[in-house]
Amino acid sequence: MRRQWAYVTVLMLLVGAWLICPTTVSQPLQAAPANGVPDPGQMGPYAIGHTSFVLYDTSRPGNREGESTYNGTSRPIPVSLWYPVDRAIVKGRPSDAVYPLDPLSSHAPTTYSDQWERYGIDPAFEGPIPSSDKPFPLVVFSPGGSAPTWLNTSTATRLASHGFVVAVMYHWGNGWWWGWEPWDPAAVAAYNRPRDMSFVLTDLLTRDAARGDLLYGLIRPDQVAAAGHSFGGYAAEVLAGGDDHVCDTMPDEWGEKPAWTCGPSSPDPRFKALALLSGFNDLLHFSELARVAVPTIGIGEEWNVVQDQQARQHAAFSGQPAYRVDLTGAVHMSFSDACEAAHVLEDIGWDENGDIWYFSQFCTPDIIPSGLAHQLTHKYMVAFLKTHLAGEPGYQSMLTPGWALTHEQYIEFFVTEKRNPNSIDEDWPGLFTYFPHQSGSVQARGVKDPVLKRAIPGLGPHQ
User: Fold this and answer.
1) Strand 411-414 relative to strand 322-327, pairing
2) pLDDT tens column, 148-187
3) How many Å apart are CA 361 and CA 182, to the nearest integer?
4) What is the residue extent of each domain of the chain?
5) How far apart are CA 174 and CA 222, in angstroms?
6) How crowded is residue 217: how many other Cβ atoms within 10 Å of its Cβ?
């Protein structure tokens, strides 16, 4: 029997997308900055290294208080890490990065870089020496609800090729292999996700300082971004602004709310920027989102597909700059490697409970082609992170509405909307205003705290 959908990542988004998204789109206008920097829409100047490992947090031994644990003592956090490599190091070597489907057991087979490359994913190599240009900025990435690490491989490899270290984690208890893992209710998953990200960052910085480690001297500790897709976007936002009460926005149909999960989640000041892919933010109050004071970019579906999800966080964030990028023709899973996964799983003959059918839904002609969605998404992620995390010049010209209007066919770009600092509370105490489209003066209004008005009852495991 087909697994049920996950409670957070797709919620209302799939339904709205299927009803509204346009017909097949053609290739976009190809445009890179005209000032000598590598085209952020293409593979960057570095080859890509990869390593994977499992961390164990002994302070959070189980998925529920008082119940069984993973190994009796700790919470596992599998991590896949991609990093820049000098091309000369791997010249003539076949790409051999190892991507296990299930990093915690032998139930599922292992895949390799070349199997994903057939469908447009950048090639990667297992364990080569990092580039001599180190240190590099770090991006800590949280996948969507019940998503594995390999569902965001295209994002990780592309960013690594442009000079970023990218760590993508697997959230045990809110992961893909729920058939042989515990399945956490939403409150438990929301409690654990930002803590997993902080734990991974601490470990990476420890390894960065350990002479002789593969990661020694690899990371710029002052240039760390939190990123995530869907439920992972919530976790990233918590790391920047906090969540005063994890359970207070959680509907009862999303499962039990153990008392130990219902306290606050604190921000982590080590994260200096946010990159959100179709981020799910209804679990945070508008006032909590307003505490996000670091530079941000939110890339997602058009306003009429997701109603005001993108606009809500964009209107709330207090950091400068705050960018909103709407991608025409995209649906929620366009910001993952779902389409590519369907092909790879079919190639290797693995179809646990209809996984191929599930992923194949996002390869239909009425959805923007996956490769095109990735190219546009990664172009704007790279430009943002280069400019506002790494502090490199040359990409700022892309991060304007004018660039999108003159160079892009499927992008609407919004910068922080100017307003009286007090009007957000005084003029519209229960609503926020936003621009539905890039050019034009028409504004729309959304509810600041929707109390999960879009939640669809009955959703279970799988996004």
Assistant:
1) antiparallel
2) 999 999 999 999 999 999 999 999 988 888 677 778 889 9
3) 26
4) 13-447
5) 30
6) 13
